[in-house]
Amino acid sequence: DAKTTQPPSMDCAEGRAANLPCNHSTISGNEYVYWYRQIHSQGPQYIIHGLKNNETNEMASLIITEDRKSSTLILPHATLRDTAVYYCIVRREYGNKLVFGAGTILRVKS
Amino acid sequence: EAGVAQSPRYKIIEKRQSVAFWCNPISGHATLYWYQQILGQGPKLLIQFQNNGVVDDSQLPKDRFSAERLKGVDSTLKIQPAKLEDSAVYLCASTRLAGLYEQYFGPGTRLTVT
Hints:
The structure holds two protein chains of two kinds. Chain A is mostly beta strands.
């Protein structure tokens, strides 16, 4: 599975959009981009995933560049409860493993 | 629907002692995973079960770690003997079918080895 690169930390003002970048320049054609987050003292939680089209659900939007070498997770109106570590993971849709990196610590501030 | 249950939530032991963690996955979930998460790092897969069979245990330190999933439902992970570097959070996750995009994680067991 391809590796990903994320900034170690980011800050965001409450109520503003949080844009979390992820680089995955070695992604293969059959690999998807997944996002999970981990709130303090909890297990990771699935957010969203996509192949090449932009995706949106009740939690977030995922924007994948046309060359698929990078993506951005967007939390449209960040709240204090969105403070967490966000993990960008690349794997085949029915691949077995989730390989987590260090992720991005997002701090939402009032 | 009840989530993934784990116990205990916290455990402190001395090195060379043994310890066991328990996980009860979401009802009907055939695939169960154990992850180890060291402070400041992302979770690392230790072992994956499909029903009561092992699918992947390539990163399980088999000289000291063991896991079982009798009857294909709940699972136990054991460490014997523990080392200082085993201090971590041990997370259990489950999914209805192997490879589905959404794994459901439990709250984890925080192990401290002194």
